[in-house]
Amino acid sequence: TKKSTITSTMKKKKNAPPAIDWPVYGVGSEEFKPHLKKMIMIVLVGFIIMTVIIFGVLSLYWAVLFRQYPSAITIAVVDFDGSANIGQVAEQTFQAQLETNPMSLGYKLFNNITGRQRFPGGNADIIDAVIDEQFWGAIIINENATTLLEEAYSIGNATYDPNGAVFLVYNEARAFTTTDEYLVPELLPLLRTLTAQMNVRLANQFLARVAADTTGNLVANAEIAPQIVGSPIGFSIFNVRPFDNYPAFSAIQIGLIYLIILTFEVILLTQPIHVVALYLKKRTYIIYRILLPIGLYFLFSLFYSFVSLMFGVPFDRRYGQAGFVLYWMVNFATMLASGLIIENFNNLVGQPLLSPFLVFWIVTNVSTSFFSIHLSAGFYQFGYAWPFSHTVSAAKAIIFNTKSYMGRDSSSRTLTTSWGSPYFRHFWCFGS
Q1: In this structure, are residues 298 and 267 in contact, taking their beta carbons and an 8 Å threshold?
Q2: Contact criterion met (CB below 8 Å) for 131 and 171
């Protein structure tokens, strides 16, 4: 009967011997030698792959930080004053910095004549040039700085502002790691030293003038405006694009690593579905394989973008309400470019090299996007063809209103995505 058949089958399964009866072979037995060779070969191949990853791939991240070239950080030093006491002293200070410190920033000096030719609109043109990323920053010795100080000496101007003599202008959001690591630590001490030297010189000159003044007017004026004696020259700092939203750090850096991991997870999750889909007609299967990843990347990039929106990352500073949609499309293009490349590699090569390729893809993208490429060795110029560098610059433009490279980024991302074109040809040629 059916019941007795099931019972007998269960007894057979219950009394069946285990699949492996330990031990089967000894390590040194002749029977185990072929298996031992296979095990050693697998371990050896894995060891070689891991060694190549550590020294050949991971080291790229260390190398990009090991050798940086601060001279590529161009700082415009513009003397609109032209006087011997202020403007010329500043020019001499920064010229000496260039000559004595080979690892200094790249200062480009403009005297009173060349400065007006290069920046006919004055300070406004300089600020625009910094925002437009023609310079990383600027030191401006303001027009009439000496004249205003002399006026304060002469009439005792109580409203005289010493910090109006020199301006430091920089763009932090352009690359906050570079700005905080190189630009600010060098410029602030240099400006403090410069203004201190100016103040000592001006104080000595003032004392000499007081000694020669028989009217007592200079002393009276100094009582009205004491700042002209103690610190007649100072400087003001203008960060024209501050990095003022810390959750945005995830949106333009660390979060992109998670975006690649999410892309890889999509590939892994869809593998079992592809096996079932093989029962479809070939034409239907090809359409399915093309549309499924695109649809999933479209949705998951939206969900990923929502996380930044939930935690207060501003997307309306440059493009208004369209900023979030643009940010979503940037992430979608990044997932699509990376996803097609990874899945293409998986289709053509597969394991055991897929995981090392993922490490390679993450490390090379991070090394060429989280840090300024043009401060690194020329080898890292390949980063302009990788998606992360363009994703980072586009996200900065959307979030912090920095210079937009959307046109360049779109064409470069199209180039990167085109690497995944064998993904589509693969189905027609190989049927899987």
Answers
A1: no
A2: yes
Cis ω for the linkage preceding 422 (within 30 of 0):
no
**Residue 431 confidence class, pLDDT cut points 50, 70, 90:** very low
Q: Which of 165, 169, 142 is nearest to 79 (CA)?
A: 142
Radius of gyration of the chain (CA): 33
| β 166-170/106-110 pair status | unpaired
* Tokens 């007795």 sit on residue: 4
Cβ–Cβ under 8 Å, residues 114 and 120: no
Per-residue pLDDT of 103-153, as tens digits, reads 788 899 998 899 999 999 999 999 999 999 999 999 999 988 888 888 888
Phi, psi (deg, nearest 5) at residue 79: -100, 100
- Residues 157-196 pLDDT 10s: 888 899 999 999 999 999 998 999 899 999 999 999 888 8
Phi, psi at 267, each rounded to 5°: -60, -45
CA distance 308 to 314: 9
What is the residue-averaged pLDDT of the chain?
84
Measure the CA angle with vertex 71, ends 69 and 72; round to 5°.
80
If one counts every other C-beta atom within 10 angstroms of the C-beta of residue 431, the result is: 10
Element counts in the chain: helices (H) and strands (E): 19, 5
**Phi–psi pair at 237, nearest 5 degrees:** -115, 130
Q: Rounded to an integer, what distance in angstroms lies between the CA atom of residue 33 and that of residue 14?
A: 33
Nearest to 391 by CA among 291, 202, 254: 254
- What percentage of the chain exceeds 70 in pLDDT? 87
CA dist 335 and 294 (Å) reads 9
Residue 168 pairs in a beta bridge with: 139, 237
Closest CA to 213 of 157, 160, 154: 154
**H or E stretch covering 107:** strand 106-110
Enclosing H/E stretch for 74: strand 74-79
For residues 388 and 61, the answer to whether their CB atoms sit within 8 Å is no
